[in-house]
């Protein structure tokens, strides 16, 4: 493990959104939930590959696990937790919050939190929404997360994107308020600031489809600005053999390009000097201190 001064050790979080290749938002409207049970599960193999890679690099990560994955693969959360990683929630059925309301979201959260806590015996403190769908239209989600006992959220992406994103949200950890005015700690994914623009570089398609130097520029800048770097990946991105779904061309390109080289690229990122990759929960004191230095961000429209 690198020996770094304590202030740098606090800055890097690896996160994995644990879902199957058929849970993805790109499949919504093309693959129905009733078909999920007929599809072969691939997630455990990819998670094992990631756990091995993290072990080689002595990394710890936060795994935002979908309740539906925990139900299908009852050992997966325990295996991840036993390897020293944090277990957090990615909801139950991978519904974007736009398709839920405060009541159905509360149910979705409760089911995922309970199954993960029952399987691991550990408290679930963090949440990430499918496709970063905490935005002004779904600001009610902040109050639902607080009511459900979550300590932090990692769902607000401070970028411009047609399907998600809050471009003017802070790029460092901040307190977000929903309609009730109560505060929740929000930890955003890494962006690369280019002038006043926030360029998404933190993972997913940006990691697979763009040259790796985008992510490396963002990482370098975050270190120079003393800003945390939160990266995100999905197990299916490291499995070139996932069955191909009947998606439109753009969905196919966005989903299936770059799968073969993803593990090698992540290996390279984890090999970069000057970083120690850790969990979100191990950095919460530091994130609260950063959030307390700024003004709360009102998400409610
Ligand atoms: Zn997801």
What order do the helices and strands come in, and which of them pair?
Elements: H1 6-9, E1 12-18, H2 33-36, H3 43-56, E2 61-65, H4 67-72, H5 76-82, E3 86-89, H6 102-120, E4 126-127, H7 140-147, E5 152-153, E6 174-177, E7 183-186, E8 191-194, E9 197-200, H8 204-209, H9 212-224, E10 229-233, H10 249-256, H11 262-271, H12 284-293, E11 297-298
Parallel strand pairs: 1-2, 1-10, 2-3, 4-5, 5-7, 6-11
Antiparallel strand pairs: 6-7, 8-9
Helix pairs in contact: 6-7
The structure holds zinc ion.
What would the keywords be for this entry?
alpha/beta, 11 strands, 14% strand, globular, single chain, TIM Barrel, 5-stranded mixed β-sheet, 12 helices, binds zinc ion, 301 residues
Give your account of this protein's structure.
The protein has 301 residues and is an alpha/beta fold. The chain has one domain: TIM Barrel, CATH 3.20.20. Helices cover 36% and strands 14% of the residues. It has twelve helices and eleven strands. The protein has a five-stranded mixed β-sheet. It has a four-stranded parallel β-sheet with strand order 3-2-1-10. A hairpin with a 2-residue loop joins strand 8 and strand 9. Helix 6 runs parallel beside helix 7. The longest helix has 19 residues. It starts with 5 loop residues before the first helix and ends with a strand. The protein binds zinc ion. The site of zinc ion has 5 residues, from loops.
